[in-house]
Protein backbone atom coordinates (compact mmCIF):
# COMPACT_ATOMS: atom_id res chain seq x y z
CA UNK A 1 0.00 0.00 0.00
CA UNK A 2 2.81 2.42 0.67
CA UNK A 3 6.54 2.65 0.26
CA UNK A 4 8.55 1.75 3.29
CA UNK A 5 11.04 4.05 4.94
CA UNK A 6 13.91 2.05 3.50
CA UNK A 7 12.48 2.34 -0.01
CA UNK A 8 12.42 6.11 0.12
CA UNK A 9 15.46 6.52 2.33
CA UNK A 10 13.78 9.50 4.00
CA UNK A 11 15.06 11.64 1.13
CA UNK A 12 11.62 11.70 -0.38
CA UNK A 13 13.42 12.15 -3.66
CA UNK A 14 11.61 11.87 -6.98
CA UNK A 15 11.66 8.38 -8.43
CA UNK A 16 12.07 9.86 -11.84
CA UNK A 17 15.57 10.96 -10.88
CA UNK A 18 16.82 7.39 -11.04
CA UNK A 19 18.83 7.07 -14.21
CA UNK A 20 17.48 3.85 -15.69
CA UNK A 21 15.84 2.88 -18.95
CA UNK A 22 12.33 4.37 -18.95
CA UNK A 23 9.20 2.37 -19.67
CA UNK A 24 7.08 3.59 -22.57
CA UNK A 25 4.52 5.99 -21.13
CA UNK A 26 1.08 7.17 -22.17
CA UNK A 27 1.22 10.16 -24.58
CA UNK A 28 -0.44 12.46 -22.01
CA UNK A 29 1.98 11.71 -19.16
CA UNK A 30 4.19 14.80 -18.59
CA UNK A 31 2.84 16.37 -21.79
CA UNK A 32 -0.26 16.91 -23.90
CA UNK A 33 -3.48 17.00 -21.90
CA UNK A 34 -1.45 16.94 -18.69
CA UNK A 35 -0.86 20.68 -19.03
CA UNK A 36 -4.59 21.30 -19.45
CA UNK A 37 -5.01 19.46 -16.15
CA UNK A 38 -2.42 21.81 -14.60
CA UNK A 39 -4.40 24.79 -15.94
CA UNK A 40 -7.61 23.38 -14.47
CA UNK A 41 -5.94 22.84 -11.08
CA UNK A 42 -4.46 26.36 -11.24
CA UNK A 43 -7.91 27.90 -11.73
CA UNK A 44 -9.37 25.76 -8.95
CA UNK A 45 -6.74 27.08 -6.53
CA UNK A 46 -7.56 30.66 -7.56
CA UNK A 47 -11.30 30.24 -6.99
CA UNK A 48 -11.15 28.16 -3.79
CA UNK A 49 -7.99 28.64 -1.74
CA UNK A 50 -7.26 32.09 -3.19
CA UNK A 51 -10.73 33.34 -2.28
CA UNK A 52 -10.36 31.99 1.24
CA UNK A 53 -7.06 33.81 1.67
CA UNK A 54 -8.91 37.07 0.88
CA UNK A 55 -11.57 36.59 3.55
CA UNK A 56 -9.92 39.21 5.77
CA UNK A 57 -11.79 41.82 3.68
CA UNK A 58 -15.16 40.21 4.34
CA UNK A 59 -14.25 39.60 7.98
CA UNK A 60 -14.00 43.37 8.55
CA UNK A 61 -17.35 43.89 6.80
CA UNK A 62 -19.00 41.25 9.00
CA UNK A 63 -17.56 42.85 12.15
CA UNK A 64 -19.18 46.16 11.22
CA UNK A 65 -22.45 44.62 10.02
CA UNK A 66 -23.23 42.24 12.86
CA UNK A 67 -21.27 43.92 15.70
CA UNK A 68 -20.09 40.62 17.18
CA UNK A 69 -16.79 39.78 18.90
CA UNK A 70 -13.68 39.11 16.82
CA UNK A 71 -13.47 35.56 18.11
CA UNK A 72 -17.04 34.69 17.06
CA UNK A 73 -16.84 36.42 13.66
CA UNK A 74 -13.53 34.73 12.85
CA UNK A 75 -15.33 31.37 13.06
CA UNK A 76 -17.01 32.09 9.71
CA UNK A 77 -13.70 32.21 7.84
CA UNK A 78 -12.26 29.39 9.92
CA UNK A 79 -15.21 27.09 9.22
CA UNK A 80 -14.88 27.68 5.49
CA UNK A 81 -11.12 27.06 5.48
CA UNK A 82 -11.27 24.23 7.98
CA UNK A 83 -14.16 22.28 6.45
CA UNK A 84 -12.57 22.59 3.00
CA UNK A 85 -9.69 20.53 4.35
CA UNK A 86 -11.40 18.44 7.05
CA UNK A 87 -13.67 16.72 4.52
CA UNK A 88 -10.56 15.40 2.74
CA UNK A 89 -10.94 11.74 3.80
CA UNK A 90 -14.62 11.74 2.82
CA UNK A 91 -13.79 13.33 -0.53
CA UNK A 92 -11.19 10.59 -0.99
CA UNK A 93 -14.10 8.11 -0.83
CA UNK A 94 -16.02 10.09 -3.47
CA UNK A 95 -12.94 10.12 -5.72
CA UNK A 96 -12.55 6.34 -5.33
CA UNK A 97 -16.18 5.79 -6.36
CA UNK A 98 -16.93 8.61 -8.83
CA UNK A 99 -13.55 9.89 -10.01
CA UNK A 100 -12.02 13.37 -9.86
CA UNK A 101 -14.16 14.90 -12.62
CA UNK A 102 -17.61 14.14 -11.17
CA UNK A 103 -16.54 15.02 -7.64
CA UNK A 104 -15.17 18.41 -8.75
CA UNK A 105 -18.27 19.35 -10.77
CA UNK A 106 -20.61 18.63 -7.83
CA UNK A 107 -18.26 20.60 -5.56
CA UNK A 108 -18.34 23.59 -7.90
CA UNK A 109 -22.14 23.73 -7.68
CA UNK A 110 -22.08 23.53 -3.88
CA UNK A 111 -19.39 26.22 -3.58
CA UNK A 112 -21.26 28.69 -5.78
CA UNK A 113 -24.49 27.99 -3.89
CA UNK A 114 -22.77 28.69 -0.56
CA UNK A 115 -21.53 32.11 -1.70
CA UNK A 116 -24.95 33.08 -3.12
CA UNK A 117 -26.92 32.01 -0.03
CA UNK A 118 -24.48 33.87 2.23
CA UNK A 119 -25.45 37.16 0.57
CA UNK A 120 -28.78 36.94 2.42
CA UNK A 121 -27.28 36.43 5.89
CA UNK A 122 -29.06 38.10 8.78
CA UNK A 123 -26.63 37.01 11.51
CA UNK A 124 -23.30 35.27 12.06
CA UNK A 125 -24.75 31.78 12.79
CA UNK A 126 -26.47 31.91 9.37
CA UNK A 127 -23.03 32.43 7.80
CA UNK A 128 -21.75 29.41 9.73
CA UNK A 129 -24.17 27.20 7.80
CA UNK A 130 -24.15 28.80 4.35
CA UNK A 131 -20.58 30.03 3.97
CA UNK A 132 -18.74 27.90 6.51
CA UNK A 133 -20.36 24.53 5.81
CA UNK A 134 -21.93 24.69 2.32
CA UNK A 135 -19.19 26.68 0.55
CA UNK A 136 -16.53 24.87 2.61
CA UNK A 137 -17.71 21.38 1.59
CA UNK A 138 -17.96 22.54 -2.03
CA UNK A 139 -14.40 23.87 -1.95
CA UNK A 140 -13.16 20.59 -0.49
CA UNK A 141 -14.88 18.57 -3.23
CA UNK A 142 -13.01 20.59 -5.86
CA UNK A 143 -9.68 21.14 -4.11
CA UNK A 144 -8.68 17.53 -3.43
CA UNK A 145 -9.41 16.28 -6.99
CA UNK A 146 -7.42 19.26 -8.35
CA UNK A 147 -4.35 18.12 -6.40
CA UNK A 148 -4.76 14.38 -7.01
CA UNK A 149 -5.36 14.61 -10.78
CA UNK A 150 -2.06 16.45 -11.29
CA UNK A 151 -0.24 13.62 -9.52
CA UNK A 152 -1.86 11.13 -11.91
CA UNK A 153 -0.69 12.98 -15.03
CA UNK A 154 2.94 13.66 -14.09
CA UNK A 155 5.98 11.52 -13.33
CA UNK A 156 9.22 13.35 -14.14
CA UNK A 157 7.95 16.88 -13.49
CA UNK A 158 5.67 16.29 -10.54
CA UNK A 159 7.13 19.00 -8.28
CA UNK A 160 7.12 21.59 -11.07
CA UNK A 161 3.55 20.69 -12.12
CA UNK A 162 2.26 20.84 -8.54
CA UNK A 163 4.18 24.08 -8.04
CA UNK A 164 2.61 25.71 -11.10
CA UNK A 165 -0.91 24.54 -10.27
CA UNK A 166 -0.80 25.57 -6.62
CA UNK A 167 0.49 29.06 -7.48
CA UNK A 168 -3.19 29.68 -8.10
CA UNK A 169 -3.52 30.16 -4.33
CA UNK A 170 -1.14 33.12 -4.44
CA UNK A 171 -2.65 34.59 -7.62
CA UNK A 172 -6.10 34.07 -6.15
CA UNK A 173 -5.27 35.73 -2.85
CA UNK A 174 -3.89 38.76 -4.72
CA UNK A 175 -6.69 38.98 -7.30
CA UNK A 176 -9.55 38.16 -4.93
CA UNK A 177 -8.34 40.66 -2.31
CA UNK A 178 -8.43 43.43 -4.91
CA UNK A 179 -11.72 42.18 -6.39
CA UNK A 180 -13.54 41.85 -3.05
CA UNK A 181 -12.25 45.27 -1.95
CA UNK A 182 -13.62 46.83 -5.13
CA UNK A 183 -16.93 44.97 -5.02
CA UNK A 184 -17.52 45.71 -1.32
CA UNK A 185 -16.73 49.40 -1.81
CA UNK A 186 -18.95 49.86 -4.88
CA UNK A 187 -21.74 47.30 -4.40
CA UNK A 188 -21.66 46.32 -0.71
CA UNK A 189 -20.57 42.99 0.73
CA UNK A 190 -23.87 41.25 -0.01
CA UNK A 191 -23.78 41.96 -3.74
CA UNK A 192 -20.06 41.16 -3.70
CA UNK A 193 -20.86 37.65 -2.44
CA UNK A 194 -23.55 37.21 -5.12
CA UNK A 195 -21.05 38.12 -7.84
CA UNK A 196 -18.38 35.89 -6.31
CA UNK A 197 -20.89 33.02 -6.21
CA UNK A 198 -21.53 33.39 -9.94
CA UNK A 199 -17.79 33.41 -10.60
CA UNK A 200 -17.31 30.29 -8.46
CA UNK A 201 -19.65 28.29 -10.72
CA UNK A 202 -16.75 28.23 -13.19
CA UNK A 203 -15.33 25.50 -10.93
CA UNK A 204 -17.68 23.13 -12.78
CA UNK A 205 -15.83 23.93 -16.01
CA UNK A 206 -12.51 23.27 -14.27
CA UNK A 207 -13.83 19.92 -13.09
CA UNK A 208 -14.89 18.99 -16.62
CA UNK A 209 -11.26 19.39 -17.74
CA UNK A 210 -10.11 16.69 -15.27
CA UNK A 211 -10.25 13.90 -17.85
CA UNK A 212 -9.38 10.60 -16.17
CA UNK A 213 -6.64 8.29 -17.37
CA UNK A 214 -7.71 4.73 -18.14
CA UNK A 215 -6.55 1.99 -15.69
CA UNK A 216 -3.98 0.74 -18.22
CA UNK A 217 -2.58 4.25 -18.62
CA UNK A 218 -2.36 4.64 -14.86
CA UNK A 219 -0.58 1.31 -14.56
CA UNK A 220 2.00 2.42 -17.15
CA UNK A 221 2.50 5.71 -15.30
CA UNK A 222 3.11 3.99 -11.99
CA UNK A 223 5.68 1.63 -13.50
CA UNK A 224 9.02 3.07 -12.42
CA UNK A 225 12.10 1.23 -13.68
CA UNK A 226 14.06 0.85 -10.46
CA UNK A 227 14.91 -2.81 -11.09
CA UNK A 228 13.02 -5.97 -11.87
CA UNK A 229 11.84 -6.47 -8.30
CA UNK A 230 10.26 -3.01 -8.12
CA UNK A 231 8.55 -3.55 -11.48
CA UNK A 232 7.11 -6.84 -10.31
CA UNK A 233 5.90 -5.19 -7.09
CA UNK A 234 4.17 -2.36 -8.98
CA UNK A 235 2.54 -4.77 -11.42
CA UNK A 236 1.25 -6.83 -8.51
CA UNK A 237 -0.54 -3.76 -7.12
CA UNK A 238 -2.93 -3.68 -10.06
CA UNK A 239 -3.83 -7.32 -9.51
CA UNK A 240 -4.17 -7.02 -5.74
CA UNK A 241 -5.72 -3.58 -5.29
CA UNK A 242 -7.88 -4.55 -2.36
CA UNK A 243 -6.21 -7.73 -1.08
CA UNK A 244 -5.10 -5.99 2.12
CA UNK A 245 -8.66 -6.39 3.34
CA UNK A 246 -9.54 -9.93 2.43
CA UNK A 247 -13.27 -9.99 3.15
CA UNK A 248 -14.02 -6.83 1.21
CA UNK A 249 -11.86 -7.87 -1.73
CA UNK A 250 -13.61 -11.23 -1.99
CA UNK A 251 -16.99 -9.52 -1.94
CA UNK A 252 -15.94 -7.12 -4.65
CA UNK A 253 -14.61 -9.99 -6.81
CA UNK A 254 -17.92 -11.82 -6.43
CA UNK A 255 -19.84 -8.70 -7.36
CA UNK A 256 -17.64 -8.18 -10.42
CA UNK A 257 -18.24 -11.77 -11.49
CA UNK A 258 -21.98 -11.30 -11.02
CA UNK A 259 -21.88 -8.09 -13.05
CA UNK A 260 -20.04 -9.89 -15.85
CA UNK A 261 -22.68 -12.63 -15.81
CA UNK A 262 -25.43 -10.02 -15.96
CA UNK A 263 -23.79 -8.43 -18.99
CA UNK A 264 -23.69 -11.80 -20.78
CA UNK A 265 -27.38 -12.34 -20.03
CA UNK A 266 -28.22 -8.87 -21.29
CA UNK A 267 -26.21 -9.35 -24.45
CA UNK A 268 -28.01 -12.59 -25.21
CA UNK A 269 -31.31 -10.88 -24.35
CA UNK A 270 -30.57 -8.13 -26.84
CA UNK A 271 -29.99 -10.72 -29.55
CA UNK A 272 -33.35 -12.31 -28.75
CA UNK A 273 -34.99 -8.89 -28.86
CA UNK A 274 -33.66 -8.21 -32.35
CA UNK A 275 -34.90 -11.62 -33.47
CA UNK A 276 -38.33 -11.37 -31.80
CA UNK A 277 -39.28 -7.82 -32.73
CA UNK A 278 -40.35 -4.91 -30.51
CA UNK A 279 -42.77 -6.81 -28.30
CA UNK A 280 -40.16 -7.34 -25.62
CA UNK A 281 -38.89 -3.75 -25.57
CA UNK A 282 -40.35 -3.06 -22.14
CA UNK A 283 -38.66 -6.10 -20.60
CA UNK A 284 -35.31 -5.20 -22.13
CA UNK A 285 -35.62 -1.64 -20.80
CA UNK A 286 -36.04 -3.08 -17.34
CA UNK A 287 -33.01 -5.33 -17.83
CA UNK A 288 -30.92 -2.37 -18.94
CA UNK A 289 -31.96 -0.50 -15.78
CA UNK A 290 -30.98 -3.55 -13.75
CA UNK A 291 -27.61 -3.68 -15.53
CA UNK A 292 -26.95 0.00 -14.78
CA UNK A 293 -27.85 -0.42 -11.11
CA UNK A 294 -25.67 -3.55 -10.88
CA UNK A 295 -22.66 -1.80 -12.41
CA UNK A 296 -23.15 1.22 -10.14
CA UNK A 297 -23.36 -1.04 -7.08
CA UNK A 298 -20.13 -2.81 -8.00
CA UNK A 299 -18.40 0.54 -8.60
CA UNK A 300 -19.51 1.92 -5.23
CA UNK A 301 -18.55 -1.23 -3.33
CA UNK A 302 -15.15 -1.42 -5.03
CA UNK A 303 -14.42 2.26 -4.33
CA UNK A 304 -15.47 1.87 -0.71
CA UNK A 305 -13.30 -1.27 -0.34
CA UNK A 306 -10.21 0.58 -1.60
CA UNK A 307 -10.96 3.55 0.65
CA UNK A 308 -11.67 1.33 3.67
CA UNK A 309 -8.49 -0.73 3.23
CA UNK A 310 -6.38 2.45 3.06
CA UNK A 311 -7.66 3.59 6.45
CA UNK A 312 -8.47 0.44 8.39
CA UNK A 313 -7.06 -2.55 6.47
CA UNK A 314 -3.92 -4.56 7.18
CA UNK A 315 -1.90 -2.12 5.08
CA UNK A 316 -3.49 0.98 6.58
CA UNK A 317 -1.72 4.28 6.09
CA UNK A 318 -1.70 4.69 9.86
CA UNK A 319 0.83 1.84 10.19
CA UNK A 320 3.39 4.14 8.53
CA UNK A 321 4.98 6.01 11.44
CA UNK A 322 6.46 8.77 9.30
CA UNK A 323 3.02 9.40 7.82
CA UNK A 324 1.57 9.62 11.35
CA UNK A 325 4.29 12.19 12.15
CA UNK A 326 3.10 14.16 9.10
CA UNK A 327 -0.44 14.15 10.51
CA UNK A 328 0.82 15.61 13.81
CA UNK A 329 2.81 18.23 11.91
CA UNK A 330 -0.26 19.22 9.87
CA UNK A 331 -2.34 19.59 13.05
CA UNK A 332 0.05 22.32 14.22
CA UNK A 333 1.31 23.94 11.02
CA UNK A 334 -1.55 25.28 8.92
CA UNK A 335 -3.01 27.68 11.48
CA UNK A 336 0.28 29.60 11.44
CA UNK A 337 -0.30 30.30 7.75
CA UNK A 338 -3.97 31.31 7.87
CA UNK A 339 -3.85 33.49 11.00
CA UNK A 340 -1.96 36.35 9.24
CA UNK A 341 -4.42 36.34 6.32
CA UNK A 342 -7.42 36.75 8.62
CA UNK A 343 -5.98 39.22 11.14
CA UNK A 344 -3.31 41.25 9.26
CA UNK A 345 -5.83 43.93 8.13
CA UNK A 346 -6.79 44.44 11.77
CA UNK A 347 -3.10 44.51 12.86
CA UNK A 348 -2.32 47.17 10.24
CA UNK A 349 -5.27 49.20 11.54
CA UNK A 350 -3.97 48.95 15.13
CA UNK A 351 -0.51 50.21 14.07
CA UNK A 352 -2.10 53.14 12.14
CA UNK A 353 -0.87 51.67 8.86
CA UNK A 354 -4.27 51.56 7.17
CA UNK A 355 -3.35 54.08 4.46
CA UNK A 356 -0.23 52.15 3.39
CA UNK A 357 -2.05 48.83 3.69
CA UNK A 358 -4.86 50.10 1.45
CA UNK A 359 -2.35 51.01 -1.26
CA UNK A 360 -0.60 47.65 -1.17
CA UNK A 361 -2.12 45.18 1.34
CA UNK A 362 0.24 43.03 3.39
CA UNK A 363 -1.81 39.95 2.51
CA UNK A 364 -1.24 40.71 -1.17
CA UNK A 365 2.52 40.82 -0.55
CA UNK A 366 2.33 37.34 1.01
CA UNK A 367 0.24 36.15 -1.94
CA UNK A 368 2.56 37.50 -4.65
CA UNK A 369 5.77 36.17 -3.11
CA UNK A 370 3.92 32.92 -2.34
CA UNK A 371 3.58 32.44 -6.12
CA UNK A 372 7.32 32.73 -6.71
CA UNK A 373 8.04 30.55 -3.68
CA UNK A 374 5.94 27.70 -5.02
CA UNK A 375 7.50 27.77 -8.50
CA UNK A 376 11.09 28.22 -7.30
CA UNK A 377 10.85 25.54 -4.59
CA UNK A 378 9.23 23.20 -7.12
CA UNK A 379 12.07 23.73 -9.62
CA UNK A 380 14.71 23.28 -6.91
CA UNK A 381 13.06 20.06 -5.70
CA UNK A 382 13.14 18.58 -9.22
CA UNK A 383 16.93 18.97 -9.45
CA UNK A 384 18.62 15.52 -9.35
CA UNK A 385 21.11 16.46 -6.62
CA UNK A 386 18.55 18.15 -4.31
CA UNK A 387 16.47 16.32 -1.71
CA UNK A 388 12.81 17.36 -1.74
CA UNK A 389 12.64 16.43 1.94
CA UNK A 390 15.44 18.90 2.85
CA UNK A 391 13.81 21.70 0.86
CA UNK A 392 10.53 21.01 2.65
CA UNK A 393 12.19 21.19 6.10
CA UNK A 394 14.16 24.37 5.38
CA UNK A 395 11.00 26.15 4.18
CA UNK A 396 9.17 25.10 7.36
CA UNK A 397 11.95 26.42 9.61
CA UNK A 398 11.95 29.77 7.76
CA UNK A 399 8.19 30.07 8.16
CA UNK A 400 8.39 29.44 11.92
CA UNK A 401 10.95 32.25 12.28
CA UNK A 402 8.67 34.61 10.34
CA UNK A 403 5.66 33.79 12.54
CA UNK A 404 7.65 34.38 15.74
CA UNK A 405 9.15 37.69 14.57
CA UNK A 406 6.05 39.19 12.94
CA UNK A 407 4.63 40.69 16.20
CA UNK A 408 7.94 42.52 16.76
CA UNK A 409 7.53 44.50 13.51
CA UNK A 410 5.47 47.67 13.87
CA UNK A 411 6.38 49.61 10.72
CA UNK A 412 5.04 48.99 7.24
CA UNK A 413 8.52 48.33 5.78
CA UNK A 414 9.48 45.76 8.42
CA UNK A 415 6.09 44.04 8.14
CA UNK A 416 6.55 43.94 4.36
CA UNK A 417 9.92 42.15 4.70
CA UNK A 418 8.56 39.55 7.13
CA UNK A 419 5.41 39.01 5.03
CA UNK A 420 7.56 38.50 1.93
CA UNK A 421 9.66 35.85 3.69
CA UNK A 422 6.49 34.26 5.03
CA UNK A 423 5.01 34.10 1.54
CA UNK A 424 8.13 32.60 -0.01
CA UNK A 425 8.63 29.94 2.66
CA UNK A 426 4.96 28.95 2.50
CA UNK A 427 5.69 27.88 -1.06
CA UNK A 428 6.46 24.45 0.40
CA UNK A 429 2.76 23.66 -0.15
CA UNK A 430 3.66 22.99 -3.79
CA UNK A 431 6.02 20.13 -2.88
CA UNK A 432 3.85 18.71 -0.09
CA UNK A 433 1.91 16.41 -2.49
CA UNK A 434 5.24 15.22 -3.92
CA UNK A 435 6.61 14.45 -0.45
CA UNK A 436 3.45 12.52 0.46
CA UNK A 437 3.38 10.65 -2.86
CA UNK A 438 6.98 9.56 -2.37
CA UNK A 439 6.05 8.38 1.10
CA UNK A 440 2.86 6.38 0.41
CA UNK A 441 2.89 5.83 -3.37
CA UNK A 442 0.66 7.08 -6.18
CA UNK A 443 -2.09 4.55 -5.49
CA UNK A 444 -2.79 5.92 -2.01
CA UNK A 445 -2.11 9.59 -2.78
CA UNK A 446 -5.80 10.62 -2.72
CA UNK A 447 -6.48 9.03 0.67
CA UNK A 448 -3.14 10.06 2.19
CA UNK A 449 -3.40 13.66 1.03
CA UNK A 450 -7.00 13.68 2.20
CA UNK A 451 -5.87 12.76 5.72
CA UNK A 452 -3.15 15.42 5.72
CA UNK A 453 -5.45 18.21 4.57
CA UNK A 454 -8.05 17.00 7.10
CA UNK A 455 -5.48 17.56 9.86
CA UNK A 456 -4.63 20.93 8.29
CA UNK A 457 -8.32 21.76 8.28
CA UNK A 458 -8.57 21.14 12.02
CA UNK A 459 -5.61 23.48 12.45
CA UNK A 460 -7.23 26.14 10.24
CA UNK A 461 -10.55 25.70 12.02
CA UNK A 462 -9.26 26.60 15.48
CA UNK A 463 -6.33 28.92 14.61
CA UNK A 464 -8.03 32.23 13.69
CA UNK A 465 -10.74 32.01 16.41
CA UNK A 466 -7.99 31.27 18.93
CA UNK A 467 -6.10 34.39 17.79
CA UNK A 468 -9.30 36.44 18.05
CA UNK A 469 -10.02 35.03 21.51
CA UNK A 470 -6.48 35.92 22.68
CA UNK A 471 -7.01 39.45 21.35
CA UNK A 472 -10.32 39.81 23.19
CA UNK A 473 -8.49 38.97 26.44
CA UNK A 474 -5.18 40.83 25.99
CA UNK A 475 -6.12 43.45 23.35
CA UNK A 476 -3.00 42.29 21.44
CA UNK A 477 -2.29 39.75 18.72
CA UNK A 478 1.32 39.18 19.90
CA UNK A 479 0.66 36.12 22.05
CA UNK A 480 -1.37 34.50 19.27
CA UNK A 481 1.66 34.51 16.95
CA UNK A 482 4.09 33.40 19.67
CA UNK A 483 1.93 30.43 20.69
CA UNK A 484 1.17 29.34 17.12
CA UNK A 485 4.87 29.60 16.19
CA UNK A 486 5.96 27.46 19.14
CA UNK A 487 3.27 24.86 18.43
CA UNK A 488 4.37 24.83 14.78
CA UNK A 489 7.93 24.11 15.95
CA UNK A 490 6.65 21.08 17.89
CA UNK A 491 5.16 19.70 14.68
CA UNK A 492 8.48 20.08 12.85
CA UNK A 493 10.29 18.28 15.68
CA UNK A 494 7.94 15.31 15.19
CA UNK A 495 8.93 15.21 11.51
CA UNK A 496 12.62 15.21 12.44
CA UNK A 497 12.46 12.63 15.26
CA UNK A 498 10.23 9.95 13.73
CA UNK A 499 12.42 9.06 10.69
CA UNK A 500 15.48 8.94 12.98
CA UNK A 501 13.71 6.54 15.38
CA UNK A 502 12.49 4.35 12.53
CA UNK A 503 16.00 4.19 11.07
CA UNK A 504 17.49 3.32 14.44
CA UNK A 505 15.12 0.42 15.20
CA UNK A 506 16.27 -1.89 12.37
CA UNK A 507 19.90 -1.33 13.41
CA UNK A 508 19.11 -2.31 17.02
CA UNK A 509 17.29 -5.43 15.81
CA UNK A 510 20.23 -6.41 13.60
CA UNK A 511 22.63 -5.98 16.53
CA UNK A 512 20.43 -8.16 18.74
CA UNK A 513 20.28 -10.81 16.01
CA UNK A 514 24.06 -10.80 15.68
CA UNK A 515 24.46 -11.27 19.44
CA UNK A 516 22.09 -14.22 19.44
From TrEMBL:
* Stretches the record annotates as Disordered: 219-248
Point out the gene that encodes the protein.
Slc16a14
What organism does the UniProt record list as the source?
A: Ceyx cyanopectus (Indigo-banded kingfisher)
Which residue stretches does the UniProt record annotate as biased composition, category Basic and acidic residues? Answer: 219-231
Which Pfam families is this protein grouped with? Answer: MFS_1 (PF07690)
Q: Does the keyword Nucleotide-binding apply?
A: no
Segments forming domain Major facilitator superfamily (MFS) profile: 37-503
The parts of the chain that form a coiled coil are none
Protein's UniProt keywords contain Chloroplast: no
- Please list the GO terms describing molecular function: monocarboxylic acid transmembrane transporter activity
Q: What is the lineage of its organism?
A: Eukaryota, Metazoa, Chordata, Craniata, Vertebrata
GO annotations of cellular component type: membrane
Q: What UniProt keywords are attached to this protein's entry?
A: Membrane, Transmembrane, Transmembrane helix
Q: What is this protein called?
A: MOT14 protein
